[in-house]
Design goal:
There is one protein chain. The chain is of the alpha/beta class and 126 residues long. The protein has one domain (20-120): Glutaredoxin (3-Layer(aba) Sandwich). The protein is built from four helices and five strands. It has helices at residues 3-8, 27-36, 52-65, 83-93; strands spanning 21-23, 42-47, 73-78, 101-106, 109-115. It is globular, with a radius of gyration of 14 Å.
Length: 126
């Protein structure tokens, strides 16, 4: 790993490699995730894969989430590839689109959301 990869996050920092992420790649995936929010709260991380800030926030969040005991269903959306799904989430949940963004959902409704450096595990462990 190069010096820059250590600072800015190399390819091995890929969220698809983290076992706790469930991908949202279709409206069906989104519907299933929202359905699960009626059992336990879920969180959707909307990530711009081309943005340095988004990559840094994602990496910091992943480090933080690995150190909690609470079981939370985490969903990952690559908003560059699935922009229409990102727009649907914003519209359906009444949450203004931002990137990066973490949206916490309970009973099919957004109960918390944050973007950029305000994203924290504390949002889902309350």
């Amino acid at each position: 790993m190069s010096f820059f990869d250590k600072i800015f996050g190399g390819k091995e920092e890929n969220p698809e490699q983290k076992s706790f992420w469930k991908k949202i790649e279709s409206e069906e995936d989104l519907a299933k995730a929202l359905e699960k929010s009626y059992i336990n709260n879920i969180a959707i991380f909307k990530h711009s894969t081309s943005c340095f800030i988004s990559k840094t926030v994602l990496r910091n969040f992943e480090r933080e989430i690995e150190n909690i005991d609470q079981k939370v269903e985490l969903y990952y959306l690559d908003l560059l590839v699935y922009r229409s799904l990102s727009n649907k989430i914003a519209e359906d949940l009444g949450v203004r689109h931002e990137s990066p963004q973490l949206i916490v959902i309970e009973n099919g409704k957004a109960i918390d959301n944050a973007s950029h450096q305000n994203i924290s595990v504390s949002q889902i462990t309350q």
